[in-house]
Every structure is written in C-alpha cells, then in structure tokens.
Specification:
Number of helices: 1
Strand content: under 5%
Distance between the termini: 135 Å
Radius of gyration: 41 Å
Number of strands: 0
Shape: rod-shaped
Largest sheet: none
Structural class: mainly alpha
Length: about 100
C-alpha cells in the first residue's frame, strides 16, 4: 500500500510541476505580448501626435487667413458706411 501511495504522489507532483511550468510559460508569453502591444500603441500615439500637430498648424494658418479676410471685409464695409453717411448728410432733405 505504501508503494501505491508513493506512485500516486509522484504522479501528482509531476502533474503539478507541469501545470506550474505551463502557467509560467503562459504568463511569460502574455507579458511579452502585452509589452509588444504597448510598444505598438506608444508608436501609434507618437505618430498621431505628429499628425495632429500638422493638422493644427494648417488650421492655424487657415484661421489667420480667414481672420485677415474678415478684417479687410470689415474695413471695406466701414468705408462704404462712412461714404453713405457722408452722402446722406450732403444731400438736401426734401421738404413738404
């Protein structure tokens, strides 16, 4: 009966050893895979930041250009209003 118990214990010890080895190998693979995903994500974010900066720079240029166009338009409108006001002042008013 002692021999059967030792055989069972040796088998169970081997099985537990294989399970522990499997868990360690699996954990190592998962850690490496996670690190690879993290590296890819960091690379993506770095590229995205560069792309976003370029887009923002283009938007700034366009906004400045539009702002200048609006300023020019406002100046033209102001001149036109001044001219219309000066014409209306110089015209004699009709009397009834």
């Amino acid at each position: 009966m002692l021999g059967v118990d030792i055989a069972t214990i040796l088998f169970q010890t081997g099985t537990v050893g294989v399970f522990i080895w499997f868990v360690l190998v699996w954990s190592d693979r998962m850690t490496k895979a996670q690190q690879e995903r993290d590296n890819q994500l960091q690379k993506f974010f770095a590229e995205q930041r560069i792309s976003d900066r370029e887009i923002m720079s283009e938007l700034v240029v366009n906004i400045k250009r539009l702002s200048e166009q609006i300023d020019q338009h406002d100046q033209k409108v102001d001149k036109a209003i001044i001219q219309l006001e000066s014409r209306s002042r110089s015209r004699p008013t009709a009397r009834k």
